Amino acid sequence: MRYAINCQFERLPAEIINQYSTLAVADICDALGRNAALPSALKPLGASRMLGTAYTVNLPASENLLLYYAVDNARPGDVLVVSCAGYTERAVAGEIVANLAKARGLAGFVVDGAVRDAEALRQLDFPVYARAVSPNGPYKDACGEINVPISMGNVVVHPGDLIAADADGIVAIRRQEAPCVAEQAQKITDAGLKKLRSIGQNGSMDMTWLYDKLSKTCCDIHS
């Protein structure tokens, strides 16, 4: 069997990526219909804020040969999005490869599997998200695929997608949708800030929408 290592894919312009630099992942998810987040089991070890272009890596269980290829060939600002065949009992990344990725200017790791050297990763100013931690080390005997669509939960991540993460979790935005999603997410952010200002100034916010909704349901409010 032959595996695909794809070197070329289209990345978003920096000016579009930068539109996401102050947006919360929750607001981006709302702009995408409230069902776009990567699995909640993916947690950060240390730094949580991450923004960059998806460079996808599809690994066989227990193997990380192509993770080193990805670190050596990805561009500064890329996020390595790594699928590990759902296996969490053997780490595919740790302190050494994370430090190498940071030195190369990569924007972070998303590992749908296990990592190790957890304490060192927590102290490293480099975002690493993973599903699990295991001290078992990886093998380097099998190949895999680079820059192909990969699945994480109910989300398919494509090379070139925009990856955004913060303490709430991770979201992938399709490259073609990124400009309009940024605009919609900014509107959601602005609306949220308006509500917070109202609460801070008056101790309340406009709840007309709530009672409009209730009036259209089968709820009876007895006063």
Question: Can you give a write-up of this model?
Answer:
- This protein has 223 residues and is of the alpha/beta class.
- The chain has one domain: Ribonuclease E inhibitor RraA/RraA-like (Glucose Oxidase, domain 1).
- The chain has seven helices and eleven strands.
- Strands 1, 2, 3, 4, 5, 6, 7, 10 and 11 form a nine-stranded mixed sheet that branches.
- Strand 2, helix 3 and strand 3 form a beta-alpha-beta unit.
- Helix 2 packs across helix 6.
- It is elongated and about 70 Å long.
- The chain starts with 13 loop residues before the first helix and ends in an 8-residue tail after the last helix.
- The mean pLDDT is 95.
> What's the level 1 CATH class?
Alpha Beta
Number of helices: 7
Which percent bin holds the helix content? Answer: 25-40%
Please, what is the CATH homologous superfamily? Ribonuclease E inhibitor RraA/RraA-like
Elements, N to C (H/E): HHEEHEEHEHEEEEEEHH
Q: Ranges with pLDDT <50 over ≥5 residues?
A: none
Percent in strands: 15-25%
Give the C-alpha Rg: 20 Å
